[in-house]
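Design review, sub-item: ligand-bound model
Attendees: FS, YL, KQ
YL presented the inputs for the FE2/S2 (inorganic) cluster complex:
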Amino acid sequence: MIKVNFTVNNRAITIETHPHTTLLEILSTKLSLFKSKIGCGNGSCGVCSVLIDGEPINSCLIHAIDLEGVIVETSEKIEGEYPQILKAFENFGGVQCGFCVSGFLVSAKAILFSEKIFTEDDIRDRFSAHICQCSGNYPYIQATLYLLKNKNLLIKNR
Ligand code: FES
Ligand code: FES
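KQ shared the predicted structure:
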């Protein structure tokens, strides 16, 4: 067992766990954060994405031993702070069964608050780490592009 200290959604966390417990397991079993889901479990579907130090990462591939000192943001925090992202996904025809959405939210936040200027191709490329089996990735790409062009809509909720 190891003790690890890190931050999740602005909350300082200390846990004792096996070094190879995944962050995805920690989120659900120790912190009751269930929006990052298990899909493929091997880094191919993006449904478990979180931000670590601002970068989108598949939480199914990150282990407790890698977490000391990092800052984690989950889709719970992102959706609460920027509900406009989910709204845009809905307006562009995404969010049908909802399974993939938390992953897209996480990647969209990273794109929208990046210092890099993302083009449509860049967004498509970034979202290739995600799979929406209902609508395909197109609505999420278009919604994120729309928000990039209308950043004034991104007012922090809390
Ligand atoms: S469950 Fe992590 S990438 Fe698919
Ligand atoms: S909305 Fe169903 S998988 Fe994306």
